[in-house]
Structures
1.
Amino acid sequence: MAVRLFEGRRLIKILFVVLLLVLLFGGGAKMIVAGGAKSLNMADRLLGQGDGARLLIADQPYGRGPRQSLDIWVPESLREGDRLPVVVFFYGGGWNSGERGDYGFAGRALARQGFVVVVPDYRLVPKAHWPDFLEDSAAAVAWTHEHIAKLGGDPDRIALMGHSAGAYNAVMLALDPQWLRAAKSDPAVIRGVAGLAGPYDFLPLEKGGRADKAMGKVRPIERTQPIRFARGDAPPLWLASGEEDDVVRPRNSQNLAAAVVRAGGSATVRIYPDIGHSGIVMALAAPFQNRQPVLDDATDFLRGATARRIAPAAKVVP
């Protein structure tokens, strides 16, 4: 009897996963844009590579506002006294949508790779506008730097990662020091940024579009553009885009990287064939990780950016 019940539940789970995958593969981009991150997160949870990661803390406030909270994912093997590299992941959604709970797939994927992963919410349009979401993002990083040592992370090895609007937030914090300084933190805490399909050079704004609603009233509007703050001493950038992305064109990554390199900094561009704007973040989830090596490439960069820095040996005076 117990065996039949187990097999019945297993069959129901398999049928559910098959249906979910049909929906995801059949209309993945549309589903993500319309809130499909929740479904993607569910598919990742059901089809994930065993456990390997766990939610250490949920709904941790980093500020006083209703959207100023974060979740923390860690490797399942985390032990007391560990000091692992840290990734703060900012989700996308055009600055007008997104919930940290729907991005557990990103937290789990990166935690399985050995990182402590912080996934914050931030204020959104229409209740908030530029620079509210940048101020929140900076506050989340400042909180992480102050508290992560007690939670298994290394405050001296923090990198940022984001998708779309989240990549914009991450890159702006790395390039323009004013945001972390305003959060009473040190801009030097950021060791590198991995940006997925981020808008970095997108003037003129599309009238009535998401960026226009989020920042269209800012003057001068150039203040909103990451490319304006390209500098040689910025943290290294890894900027990835899907070749078929018609929401945020790959030229955003290419233009910013070229500007940073011209200034003497470090920036790498990776363009993935056969995927679009949503596909590049979907590649972090278990059902899609084999389509493109986005997770492997991003974590290779993040490991290098957060590698331990060894102080030079003192010179011996003869």
2.
Amino acid sequence: MFMTIGSAQAHGLIEETGRARLPVIVSGLLLAALWLAYCIGARRVRPATGRWLTFQGASLIAALTTFGPSQLWLGSGSAAHMIQHLLIMAVIAPLYALARPLPQWLAATGRTGRWLFRPLLHLSRYPIWAGGLQGVAIWFWHAPKFYNLALADPGWHFVEHAGFALGAGLFWWSVLGRHSATALPALLFTFMHMGMLGALLTFAQTPLYDDRLDLQDQQLAGLIMWVPGGLPYLIAGAWCGLRWFRQLTLRSE
């Protein structure tokens, strides 16, 4: 989930040294804590097999994104970083949400877990607000000043990715667990504003970020966000729309 950029640019725990390694270790500890709590809770509240497999798959992808030698299989340009951002927001987060791990986490953490999750659960009742918070995180960290800040400082890079993960996790938990009438507008809103940001990067005629290999790399990053990055939101929106249509049909019969 974390990688450093700039003159010391390496990606992955093995390649990091000194201060740059600390955020990677913290990320790994957080992932390990979530995984361990789920496994402990699963012994008390058994999840369905499909949800268990989904959680394990999401955890594996998250671990590879965090610890893998990503410089070898992604590179270090804007397009590579956009792929990493989308893995966090549009692959890992929805998989965790589909796994519905909250009963297992609460079973393992007890009152502490309930205290931690209560404000997030309250906010998840409002998909539009959850989508708005995720949108703020996306646009904030893709603004050149703050994007470049995250590139230059390992600590801020960790904060950036933590913001993406928390915002996306809350968003997908909200839209996948809510009534289609409220989830669909949130999905369409997210699809549109991410497409707008992708289009801005695609058609930009000047470099905006310090990690761009060249202008074409930055434009490719925008295209990745614009087209494949929007597909999960479009598919989820179509699913919500179909579910809503079926509910309206059943009510009219």
